[in-house]
Specification:
Chain lengths: ~190, ~750
């Protein structure tokens, strides 16, 4: 299975309602300062939609959005371009980019993210249909990158929805609370020899 | 961009109508040719526009970031998809929804595409289309295929072509209509799609249908061609027909359409339209795009002369069975209810239901059934909302959904008793917003969000006005509540500001060393009566002060209007000067240091600039019919080569011959437009007109390339070998080149 176009969402842990308007300026500032490796293009404002994409930083290879799907605010990183390397490498790279963006927002805006739950979406219905069979086929492949992400912490892996019309979206939850910084440290750590 | 693009064609091949599948294959080949530098960028631009693939802001590779203009270094470098339009830059795809009609599966597919290829939003336009933004051009053939598999096309959604055919969303359920215009709109759309007579326009051509004259929501008067349903009694029976109008349009200078014929029988609608198209293609302006819409031709000729030319053209049209074939079954699109008739029985309803009932529910002419408007903020929908609406459409109706020109959706044939449950289902999706058709239901074009021509943020302003007005609409004076408010990002009127009670379009003003976003205030336009009259400009006001403009004008209307005085009459009575005076103190711009907020636009953190405006593509490139035909001949040569590489020798040879024939036919049509498209006749005409006259002769090679064509024609039915096929392909390339040279000579002679 050639898994591509991975989306990763990390949820906001800050309590109370959050005004998304300042993020228009923050994302524009990222463009001004070339703050990511990717080519950043524009900022799109969809705050008027209920449970929609919120504020989106449009990039060439990936978008970043303060997404409100299902009424849960989080940073959604959507990788659009094809990625090279093994599936594990692609997953780790996508998660690293997401977590770096979360940490940047934590520093710039004081927003708090939780590392205890990560949502993975495979944004290609043909390559990864939303079926139990796809998940079972993927489970062994996902094991290595998720163990790298969560280190020694136990985690669960489940499909979010059984609706075959939706994209395959997996919820990865650690059994114990974990921070974004720890997840980034885990990813950065040297892989142990087998 | 998508890895799965290569797999989708086979996946949906059997579900696509063959003609759409073929069209998309052609477009994919053109994409490849453009990438290889074998197709001119202007030609590619127009061909992609005619497939609905539009440019988007910043696609010239530059964006003002608030401090400086940044160069956007896309991976494909200098490769372009049109003049000054970089290949990798995100673009828009416009999806045609004829008369706005949609079923549940189509909603689901739009949701899938918005998720997989766009930025997670599907946008309903002011012409009943859908648009997806931030699309990569490489993904467009796959998106088109997935749409074609559910019988949707993007063909001729943009460019100098017949755009989406729109119609009143209440057609078939409306109390005031003469009859349901839906099957006629559908038939006309199908007849004109890809029709040879609509391929040589100098500008776009928009068609609208309305079921009635007075309350017509079809906006006929602002269209290039409009048809209003009317009936006549003849021999004791009812005869259906249309009042046909031509030459309307908005844009910077709006024109009201003129009556061409007060009664065109339904069987004459298609041939009459074809005749109009031929006259427009023949006599319409081709060089100056600013005067190329049919409204200018009608104004220049006068209606009497225009009509005479159209009727003369009609008289010589070769009969076409499609003109009337659809009339055998006009009931094929008739809708019926899924749920039994049952009245709203006074059972407890959720909060907000009662007010929603007054604004979003239209009782149909079929007793016990209603049409429900789903109000979409700025015309935007998320994929989960689209899927949820598909579920709702299946649960309450036989999937009878339509998009509206006010950027909403309507659900038809809802049993009254189901309304509380329906409201609950919409509430769960966040689509229960009341106020449809009120001042809080603001229409806006994309403006500076994505449009290359946008001057000010129409969506930003519309979003802010919606936010403010939605909070108070329930308590507003009814006279104000039912006003219509529309916003365009520039004078081109895609937000239809001319037909709003309160309309605004983006402009700018200088203040010191800065440019300040403004909106021109337009008052007194009429949306009803099929866009019955256009508003008048009052003056420009800084963008950030427009909400205050709305407050002052509506307050003044409440305060000073006479009993039952309409807003239009009120504006005319008190006069432009007095309204202007009312707004005078809002126009001075304080220095930047005192109030920098006026120097940024709504929902944009950057200091305002006009530097991001690009060249618009809505007019398309002026590319003549013969340019397209010769490009098609070149594509045939390319495909012959591909077939040869695959070892399909016979098919490759035949394709090469077809390329030569196509090039010859392209030239013949320059002199004899109605020339029959039959090989023997093409060769005969070509020999007489181009070979014997030496027009086709090369300065050095003489008549050699003509001989290639004649030889290929004589041996067309013989089996091909690898050698003869290879030779035939090379000859075909030379014939196509010679056709290009011949065309250049013809142009020189013409201009001499």
């Amino acid at each position: 299975m050639d898994l591509q176009h991975l989306n990763v969402k990390v949820f906001v842990a800050s309590p109370g309602p959050i005004d998304l308007e300042p993020f228009i300026g923050i994302f524009n500032n990222w463009i001004q300062r070339h703050l990511t490796d990717d080519l950043l293009i524009d900022v799109a404002d969809y705050r008027h939609t209920v449970n929609g994409p919120g504020v989106v930083l449009i990039g060439h290879a990936a978008n970043y959005s303060l997404d409100q799907t299902d009424g849960r605010l989080g940073l959604l990183y959507s990788h659009k371009a094809a990625l090279m390397g093994s599936i594990a490498d692609r997953l780790c790279e996508t998660m690293r980019a997401t977590l770096l963006a979360c940490r940047r927002l934590e520093h710039e805006n004081g927003l708090k993210f939780s590392g205890s739950e990560v949502q993975l979406t495979f944004n290609d219905r043909l390559l990864a249909p939303n079926t139990p069979k796809t998940l079972e086929a993927l489970r062994p492949t996902l094991q290595e990158p998720l163990e790298r992400l969560y280190g020694q912490a136990a985690y669960t892996l489940n499909r979010i929805s059984g609706d075959p019309r939706e994209r395959l979206t997996l919820s990865v939850k650690s059994v114990t609370p974990i921070t974004v910084t720890t997840l980034l440290q885990n990813l950065a750590a040297e892989r142990m020899p087998a | 961009m998508k890895v799965s693009n290569a797999l989708w064609r086979d996946q949906v091949l059997n579900a696509m109508p063959p003609e759409l599948a073929h069209e998309i294959d052609i477009f994919e080949t053109e994409l490849l040719l453009r990438k290889q530098g074998k197709l001119d960028e202007k030609l590619f631009a127009e061909t992609r526009l005619r497939r609905g693939a539009y440019g988007q802001r910043y696609d010239n590779g530059q964006r003002w970031d608030g401090k400086e203009t940044q160069q956007l270094a896309y991976p494909s470098g200098e490769l372009t998809k049109g003049p000054n339009t970089l290949w990798d830059a995100p673009g828009m795809l416009r999806i045609k929804i004829p008369y706005g009609g949609l079923n549940a599966r189509q909603l689901e597919v739009v949701a899938e595409l918005a998720e997989e290829y766009s930025d997670g939003i599907a946008h309903v336009t002011t012409r009943q289309d859908f648009q997806l933004h931030f699309i990569h051009i490489d993904d467009t053939p796959t998106i088109m295929r997935r749409l074609a598999a559910v019988d949707i096309t993007t063909r001729e959604a943009c460019g100098n072509s017949v755009r989406n055919v729109t119609a009143c969303p209440y057609s078939g359920v409306c109390h005031t209509e003469a009859f349901d215009v839906t099957p006629y709109a559908q038939a006309l759309m199908r007849f004109l799609l890809g029709h040879p007579d609509v391929q040589d326009f100098g500008r776009k051509f928009k068609i609208a249908f309305s079921g009635c004259r007075e309350t017509g929501c079809g906006l006929v008067n602002m269209h290039d061609l409009g048809a209003i349903a009317v009936t006549r009694t003849e021999n004791g029976g009812e005869r259906r027909g249309f009042e046909v109008y031509v030459g309307g349009g908005l844009g910077s200078v709006p024109y009201q359409a003129k009556l061409l014929d007060a009664f065109v029988p339904v069987e004459e609608l298609l041939p009459l339209t074809q005749a109009i198209a031929r006259v427009f293609a023949r006599l319409g302006e081709k060089k100056n795009r600013n005067r190329a819409r049919i409204k200018f031709l009608v104004a220049q000729l006068g209606m009497d002369e225009f009509k005479r030319l159209v009727l003369a053209e009609r008289a010589q049209l070769p009969p076409d069975p499609r003109w009337t074939a659809f009339l055998d079954d006009v009931s094929v699109l008739d809708e019926k209810p899924l749920r039994p008739v049952a009245a709203l029985n006074g059972a407890p309803a959720p909060d907000g239901f009662e007010y929603w009932l007054t604004t979003n529910v239209y009782p149909q002419k079929q007793a016990g059934y209603v049409t429900v408007t789903v109000t979409l903020p700025l015309g935007d929908l998320t994929p989960p909302q689209l899927r949820g609406l598909a579920d709702i459409a299946r649960r309450f109706t036989y999937e009878t959904v339509r998009a509206t020109v006010e950027q909403n959706l309507v659900l038809r044939w809802i049993s009254e008793a189901d309304l509380p449950h329906l409201y609950g289902a919409l509430y769960a999706l966040g689509l229960h917003q009341a106020g449809a058709g009120t001042i809080a239901d603001v229409t806006a074009c994309p403006g500076t969000d994505t449009c290359k021509l946008g001057i000010a943020s129409s969506r930003g302003l519309a979003g802010e006005l919606t936010r403010q007005l939605a909070a108070q609409v329930e308590t507003l004076d009814p006279a104000v509540r039912n006003l219509r408010l529309k916003v365009s990002g520039c004078f081109n009127s895609c937000g239809q500001h001319h037909v709003a009670d309160l309309g605004f379009y983006g402009v700018s003003r200088h203040a010191g060393n800065y440019t300040v976003p403004h909106f021109q205030v337009m008052l007194g336009g009429q949306w009803t009566n099929n866009a019955g009259s256009y508003g008048l400009p009052i003056g420009a006001v800084p963008a950030k002060r427009i909400p205050e403009v709305v407050t002052r004008i509506t307050n003044r209307y409440i305060q000073d209007r006479q009993p039952d005085e309409s807003f239009q009459t009120f504006i005319q009575r008190i006069g432009k000067a007095e309204i202007k005076q009312l707004l005078d103190d809002l126009t001075p711009i304080p220095p930047h240091d005192l109030d920098p907020t006026l120097y940024t636009d709504w929902r944009d953190a950057r200091e305002f600039t006009l530097g991001d405006r690009g060249e618009g593509e809505c007019a398309g490139e002026i590319v003549s019919r013969i340019d397209f035909d010769l490009a098609a001949a070149e594509r045939e040569v390319f495909e012959a080569q591909v077939l040869l590489d695959k070892g399909e020798i016979q098919a490759a040879g035949e394709r090469a011959y077809a390329a030569m024939l196509q090039a010859a036919y392209a030239l013949v049509k320059e002199q004899f437009y109605a020339a029959p498209n039959q090989p023997d006749q093409i060769i005969g005409e070509f020999r007489t007109r181009f070979y014997n006259t030496k027009l086709f002769w090369d300065d050095y090679a003489g008549g050699k390339f003509g001989h290639y064509l004649f030889h290929a024609h004589e041996h067309a039915r013989e089996p091909y070998t690898v050698d003869t096929t290879r030779r035939r392909i090379e000859e075909a390339q030379l014939v196509v080149e010679a056709a290009h040279s011949c065309y250049r000579r013809l142009l020189k002679l013409k201009n001499a």
